[in-house]
Amino acid sequence: MKYLICALIFLVACGYSLGPSGAATAWAELNNAQNVSAGAGIFVEAPGGLLLKLNVSNLPPGVHALHIHEVGKCEPPDFKSAGAHFNPEGKKHGLKNPEGSHLGDLPNIVVGENGSVQVEILIKDKSFLNNPGGTALVIHEKADDEITDPAGNSGARIACGVIIRNIMGRYS
Length: 172
Known about the structure:
The protein is mainly beta. The chain is about 5% helix and about 35% strand.
């Protein structure tokens, strides 16, 4: 509970709104492979889906893949516990794949020279919030080429956070 309160204070201090109802739909506190805080993401209701407001730091500069993974576990240092990309429809990988993409495929993010980035991404399909095993938000070491199965040649997982849902004002 202490970490939840700290994360929410952090997000508000960084200028993130918690949505019209005053509460996020879900949130994820990300840690890097050394188990050091790498920031957080909140998911708020928005027209057309969920808006992910991501504020991360302590990462290497450059372009990095961002995905939702199918298991709500983030065990460092490799974060393989998060499983594969969230893909309940069994589609191919990549936002540019003509056969469709995984529901966990998200756009690449660009981390600045100072090791941080703030970005907002609209996620159209919210079904990842109802996955029985939970889900995780994962940042990879390289850019996603947005077409190659299974993970877009995005390399190792360098940060991970379990996505925690807000159910009637309680996170679970």
